[in-house]
Specification:
single chain; mainly alpha; MetI-like fold; 2 domains; 78% helix
Length: 269
């Protein structure tokens, strides 16, 4: 009976867990992951050339930063993600809000945006190289294409979820379209819009390596491609880990921004 009670408490439906339990769970899952990795490497269960040990990967990471000027590649990658994501957001957020607020705007753009969402961004690489050459433009364009259409759709959907009573009340009180959009719809939808941007920033990081493996001499992806030529699997895994850490840090920053801007939405445990 006591066992069932513990299981019920652990698997409580939509009941927030405490910070201590959350931290222990996070540490535990990563400890288990690296434990299995270390064990498999130590016991010879994996090919060391293809799956180097965590010690080798961390040593390679240190070597890349200390002796190979990897920091400049990381900075180049961060710059590309920030610029492309900023440009995509500058277009997607206003357009998504307009589409979610005005059905006439949605009727114009929705068929176009919906069609582009199903086109894989990497398929544009050949044409982007033909249009823009091998400089920064095709890399930024690929990241831009990979984010913008999904972000437009998410922003539009979140805008549509604004309570109809708020809009009708504002219109009844004499508010015009400008006031309703900026003073009612935008503030109500903004928390979810920030969340959508946070989700789509992860998409930008996933496309980063694809953008940088084509005719690129700088960036994390370019380093990984150079490492592939020499079968330096430890350096490739280092690049993957660095991208994961950068993505996680950017996610934390967006989460902190969300908490700072909307403290009234903080869940109470």
């Amino acid at each position: 009976m006591s066992t069932n009670t513990k299981q019920t408490r652990f698997l409580e439906v939509r009941t927030p867990v405490g910070k201590g339990q959350r931290m222990m769970s996070a540490i535990g899952i990563w400890a288990a992951f690296f434990g299995v990795w270390v064990f498999a490497s130590a016991m010879g269960l994996v090919n060391e050339l293809l799956v180097p040990s965590p010690q080798q990967v961390f040593a390679a990471t240190y070597n890349l930063f200390a002796e190979r000027e990897f920091a400049s590649d990381v900075l180049a990658s961060i710059t590309r993600v920030v610029l492309a994501f900023g440009m995509a957001s500058a277009v997607a957020v206003p357009l998504g809000i307009m589409m979610g607020t005005f059905p006439s705007i949605e009727a114009i753009f929705a068929p176009f945006v919906s069609a582009w969402r199903y086109l894989p961004a990497p398929s544009f690489i050949p044409i982007l190289l033909m249009w823009f050459g091998t400089g920064e433009a095709p890399k930024l364009a690929l990241l831009f294409i990979g984010v913008i259409f999904f972000l437009i759709t998410l922003v539009m959907d979140h805008t549509k979820n604004v309570r109809k009573e708020l809009i009708e009340t504002a219109l009844t009180l004499g508010a015009g379209r400008y006031v309703v959009t900026l003073k009612v719809v935008l503030p109500a939808a903004l928390p979810d819009i920030i969340t959508a941007m946070r989700q789509m920033l992860a998409m930008a990081w996933t496309y980063l390596v694809i953008a940088e493996i084509v005719a690129s001499t700088t960036g994390i992806g370019a380093m990984m491609m150079r490492a592939r030529r020499f079968l330096s699997t430890d350096e490739i895994l280092s690049g993957i880990i660095v991208i994961g850490v950068l993505g996680l840090l950017s996610d934390f920053l967006f989460a902190a921004l969300h908490r700072g801007l909307f403290p009234y939405l903080k869940e109470k445990n």
